[in-house]
Specification:
Layout: H1 5-13, H2 36-42, E1 54-57, E2 77-81, H3 143-147, H4 165-168, H5 170-174, E3 193-199, E4 217-224, E5 227-234, H6 240-262, H7 269-290, E6 297-304, E7 311-318, E8 322-327, E9 331-334, E10 354-359, E11 362-364, E12 369-375, E13 380-384, H8 386-389, H9 407-424, H10 436-450, H11 452-458, H12 474-488, E14 497-504
C-alpha cells in the first residue's frame, strides 16, 4: 500500500534532508557539544570579549574620522552574480542629471519655496531624521541650482566631478577597455574573495520549475592589494522587476565607489562615508532608469588605516541585508546592528527600508545607517541576504533546548550560532573556516540543508496530482496546501533566496589588473 499524505508528512518531519542533499550527517538538532553555546549564554557563563567596537549613526557626521593609509588602485579580483549580476544592467550607460524631468533624486536639498508646479520633493516621504542624509553626487548638481540654494552640499575634493573626461567621454566607458561598473574583467572569485547566490524554494514536482524565479538577490565584490568593496542587494518580493532592482542597485553602487574612492585622493573615513552615501544615490537613480522595483542594499568598504596591519570596515545599509565580521579571536559581530533594534522582536516580512520607487520615485530610508569597526588581517567580512541571516536565527532554526528568549538574547544567540558554525562546521567537529570561500560555501550549505524538509513537503506530487496522476483542481490544491502549511510551521528553516559574499582581510600580492 502506498503511504498516505499524512504518513509522508510525518516522515518529512523526521528528516531534514534526503541522501542526495545530505552526503554527511546533519546533527544540529541533536544535543552535541556544539550546542553548548546556548546553555553557556543563557546560564550567564559566556565569557565577555573585549572586541573592537561597532560605531554607527544615521549620517557620516555622527562618526569619528579615522586616517587612512595609501590605497592601491589596481583591481585584483572582481566577481558578481548570480547569472551575470551587475553586468546585465545599464547597457545604455546613460548618465542622469538633475535636469531630467522624470527623475527626482532622493537627496535633493530642501528649498524655501517651490519655483514651479513640478512633482513633490523627493524627500517628502522621508522623516526629518533621514531627509537629505544622502548628499547628491556633484554630477547631479547644476550651477543655477547651487547658486539658488545656500544649503547645497559642497563638492568634496575626493569625489569625482561629472566634468572630468573619464565620466563624460563615451570612449572611456564603452571603448577599448569595455569597463562595467569601473571594472574591465569580472571573473569567478578566489579563496579570499567570493560570493554565491542560490534559491531555497521548492521545485514544482510536475514542471520542475523552482518557485520564486528568477533569484532576486545580487552581489558583487572588487578587491585590490589591501582593500575591498562588497555589495549585496535583495530585491523585495519576487519577479523580474525585483531582480532587476537588485542588480541595478549593485551596479550603481559599485560603479560609483570604484570611481570615487580609488580614482581620487582619500584620506579619512569621513570621505569614504560621503562616497558610500552618494553611491546609494547612484544606486537608486539606476533603479529608476532601469525601471526596477524595490530592493535592500548593503555596501562595505574595507580599507587600510595609517597604523600598520590595521584595517577599517565602513558600511552603509538600508533594509534587512546585513554585514558581519568573523574573527578567529573575537568570534562573530554584526557591523549593521545599528540599523535595527535588537531589543524588539522583528517582523521578518518587513524589510525595514528599500531603494527604488516606494512612494512615487522616492525610496524608504527609515533604517539607513552608516557603521564602522576595526578589523584585523585574517578576519572575514561577509554580507548576507535575509535568506541566510534569518535561517541562522535560533527560533527559525528551532535549535534544541531553547526556551522563550527576549529579542536581544535572540540576536546574541544568532551571532553565537553563526560563530559555532564557522568554528565547528555543520558536523560540530570542524575544521574552522579560514577563507572567504570556505565561509560562503559553509553558510550556503547550512541553510540549504536546514530548509530541505520544507522543500520536500512542498514538492510532494500529491499537492498537485490526484491518486491517478491527473492534475488536481485549483480548489483541491489550495485545500492540500492549507493542510501542509499548518505542518510547515513545525519544520525548521525559512524558504527564500540566499546570498553570501565575503572577503578575507589582509594584503595580497599584486597579481592581477
Amino acid at each position: 500500500m502506498m503511504p498516505s499524505f499524512r504518513q509522508k508528512v510525518a516522515g518529512f518531519l523526521r528528516q531534514l534532508s534526503n541522501q542526495a542533499e545530505n552526503d554527511r550527517s546533519f546533527d544540529d538538532h541533536k544535543p552535541t557539544s556544539s550546542d553548548c553555546f546556548i546553555q553557556r549564554y543563557l546560564s550567564g557563563k559566556e565569557q565577555s570579549r573585549d572586541e573592537p567596537k561597532i560605531l554607527h549613526g544615521r549620517t557620516y557626521q555622527e562618526l569619528p574620522p579615522r586616517s587612512l593609509g595609501v590605497l592601491s588602485k589596481a583591481v585584483l579580483v572582481a566577481m558578481t552574480g548570480p547569472n551575470g549580476g551587475l553586468t546585465t544592467v545599464n547597457h545604455r550607460q546613460r548618465h542622469l542629471s538633475i535636469s531630467d524631468p522624470d527623475v527626482h533624486f532622493i537627496d535633493e536639498p530642501q528649498t524655501g519655496s517651490s519655483s514651479s508646479g513640478h512633482s513633490k520633493d523627493a524627500n517628502s516621504n522621508i522623516s526629518p531624521m533621514n531627509a537629505n542624509v544622502i548628499p547628491p553626487p556633484p554630477e547631479y548638481a547644476t550651477p543655477s541650482n547651487a547658486a539658488n540654494n545656500s544649503t547645497s552640499i559642497q563638492k568634496s575634493e575626493s569625489v569625482p566631478n561629472a566634468c572630468d573626461s573619464r565620466f563624460n567621454n563615451p570612449d572611456s566607458i564603452l571603448g577599448v577597455n569595455r569597463e562595467i561598473a569601473g571594472v574591465s574583467d569580472w571573473g569567478s572569485g578566489t579563496s579570499e574573495a567570493f560570493g554565491c547566490s542560490t534559491t531555497l524554494y521548492e521545485r514544482h514536482p510536475l514542471t520542475g520549475i523552482p518557485a520564486g524565479e528568477p533569484i532576486a538577490d545580487s552581489f558583487a565584490i572588487v578587491t585590490r592589494r589591501d582593500s575591498a568593496i562588497l555589495c549585496l542587494a535583495d530585491g523585495v518580493n519576487w519577479g523580474v522587476k525585483a531582480s532587476l532592482a537588485a542588480r541595478a542597485a549593485v551596479h550603481g553602487c559599485i560603479d560609483y565607489l570604484n570611481r570615487a574612492i580609488f580614482s581620487w585622493p582619500m584620506s579619512t573615513t569621513t570621505e569614504v562615508f560621503h562616497s558610500l552615501l552618494r553611491s546609494f544615490h547612484a544606486a537608486h537613480t539606476l533603479i529608476l532608469q532601469e525601471e526596477g522595483l524595490l530592493t535592500t542594499l548593503t555596501a562595505v568598504v574595507v580599507l587600510p588605516l595609517v597604523t600598520s596591519d590595521r584595517y577599517i570596515a565602513c558600511a552603509c545599509n538600508v533594509g534587512d541585508s546585513l554585514a558581519y565580521v568573523y574573527s578567529p579571536v573575537y568570534g562573530v559581530r554584526e557591523i549593521t546592528q545599528g540599523s535595527h533594534d535588537v531589543h524588539r522582536m522583528r517582523d521578518m516580512r518587513d524589510a525595514l527600508g528599500a531603494l527604488g520607487p516606494v512612494d512615487g520615485q522616492n525610496p524608504e530610508l527609515g533604517n539607513l545607517t552608516c557603521s564602522m569597526t576595526e578589523v584585523e588581517p585574517g578576519d572575514i567580512v561577509f554580507l548576507t541576504s535575509d535568506g541566510v541571516s534569518d535561517n541562522l536565527d535560533p527560533v527559525v532554526g528551532k535549535f534544541t533546548g531553547l526556551p522563550m528568549v527576549e529579542a536581544h538574547q535572540r540576536h546574541r544567540l544568532t551571532l553565537l550560532r553563526t560563530e559555532d558554525l564557522l568554528r565547528n562546521g555543520v558536523s560540530g567537529h570542524g575544521p574552522p573556516c579560514s577563507t572567504a570561500k570556505e565561509l560562503v560555501s559553509l553558510l550556503i550549505d547550512f541553510v540549504t540543508r536546514l530548509t530541505a524538509a520544507k522543500r520536500r513537503m512542498l514538492e510532494d506530487v500529491e499537492l498537485y496530482a490526484d491518486s491517478e496522476g491527473g492534475p488536481r483542481t485549483r480548489g483541491k490544491q489550495r485545500a492540500r496546501r492549507k493542510d501542509v502549511c499548518a505542518k510547515l510551521a513545525m519544520v525548521p528553516g525559512k524558504l527564500d533566496h540566499a546570498t553570501v559574499v565575503a572577503y578575507t582581510v589582509g594584503e595580497f600580492p599584486q597579481s592581477g589588473t
